[in-house]
Here is the input.
Amino acid sequence: MLDLTYEAPKPRVIAGATGDWELVIGLEVHAQVASKAKLFSGASTQFGAEPNSNVAFVDAAMPGMLPVINEGCVALAVKMGLGLKAKINLTSAFDRKNYFYPDLPQGYQISQLYHPIVGEGEVIVDMAPGVARRVRIERIHLEQDAGKSIHDMDPHMSFVDLNRTGVALMEIVSRPDIRGPEEAAAYVVKLRQILRYLGTCDGNMQNGNLRADVNVSVCRPGDYEKYQATQDFSHLGTRCEIKNMNSMRFIQQAIEYEARRQIALLEDGKSVIQETRLYDPDKGETRSMRSKEEAHDYRYFPCPDLLPLEIEQAWVDEIAASLPELPDAKKVRFVTDFGMTEYDASVLTADVESAAYFEEVARGRDGKAAANWVINELFGRLKKEGHEIGESPMTARQLGGILDLIASDAISGKIAKELFEIVYTEGGDPAAIVEARGMTQVTDTGAIEAAVDEVIAANPAQVEKAKANPKLAGWFVGQVMKATGGKANPAAVNQIVAARLGL
Amino acid sequence: MSIDRETARRVAKLARIKVEEGDLDALAGEFNAILGFVEQLNEVDVEGVEPMVSVTPMRLKRRQDAVTDGGYQEKILSNAPDAREGFFAVPKVVE
Here is the structure.
């Protein structure tokens, strides 16, 4: 694969009272595995079901129930690992993370602390054409989600729904390679793009299917480079973890606030205490979440109910062979094969559906023209109505039909836009519409000459002016286009007007 | 490693087991006895021996990704001390 060259973005610098500060950020992204059933039970993962209806006795931790792993979830985690060019661990194991909370009936979460299924990988986070951050992935592990507690339905009670309990999550852990709030959001966007390309998670943040814990610390310029050279964390500041964020905007706001809070503490001669914090979007601030230190004592130990998970290299190879083309590769191919800009390629490869739509339009046609029409006309029109590409009333075949009519000179560019609007709103076959409504471009020189002569005869004063100032010929071209309902071939009109005016 | 009274108190609290003040010293003593017993195992030389995770050479049992369970809200809630509108109702817990 050909690589687009890129350089790293500049880290975000915040000017403090005692000098400049830089940000160091690492993320733990929890992505709900797109499986039908839960990680260790046969209950459904369907969102929005009646409370406590997607719950098996295993999920409710009834005595004597034992977990049995869902092979589909394992396959999707492996697939994600391969998508991040990561090492797949053929042997991994499950551990219990112990804590008490009403929405965790087992009293522990089954996770993979010591032996995760996926090891080190990487994500290229695009910031702008030619600018990208390579973020190292430390690991991906499989774990159970907890249930949902609702605190606002009753003044004295909390209500618990276990539908989510036991749903499989992939926790994707990055190294502290992210250097600013925008990069952090762009990283989540890129992960979501890869998750969706692979079909390993639907990436729906509103439903909580993609959530991020963000680790933030600050350091002085130069310190981060020392860390990178030695991988010694002592060069970096103390970090705080902001939990459970499910919006790109909040991620950025929270990091911004948290960095400034830490800088203020340090410049005040105080120190940052490593802790878990929550972002309050209403107040725009983070606050300490767990005051009790012992809440962090999870007493991990290997889960005695589950043998180590052993998978075969042949099975991993099979999954690898089924991987679709990923966004980075697709982007490079669009740039090289269609000669489009990296920016256009980024727009078209943002999601699988857009890319597939474009490729169908471009097949056997001019790639640049196809890119233009898909991005400027179609995406513009869809955006105006708040529609996704999947909701487009115009099929790729229809748009391709319009492009064919332009390419064969059957319609002018101006008429093409009208035709686009008709096909978009009314549907139908573009060629048939052009035929039925007489929108065909007039290339018949005789007809154009007649129209030009008519305009010249009707405007003798303008003719004199144009002879003195050839720039005014454009006015005649406009009049002729108007008279022919935009159907005259503009190049032919230009030529004939110039000839008739003797320019 | 030796377990003192404070560690015993903390372990009990983490496990949500109520231990009377007067019982903490005895509990700490029992912990120490158990740890002492386990520590004897350290005398065995296990250099180069793979940790054994199971006494039978079994492969982890797996399931296909298919919905085969659930759909019985009333059974799930049947042991709940309090349930309302399909939810478990518990004393208010909010950070």
In short: The domain at 445-501 of chain A is CATH 1.10.10 (Arc Repressor Mutant, subunit A). Chain A has a mean pLDDT of 92. The longest helix of chain A spans residues 248-267. Residues 38 and 167 of chain A are 4 Å apart (CA to CA).
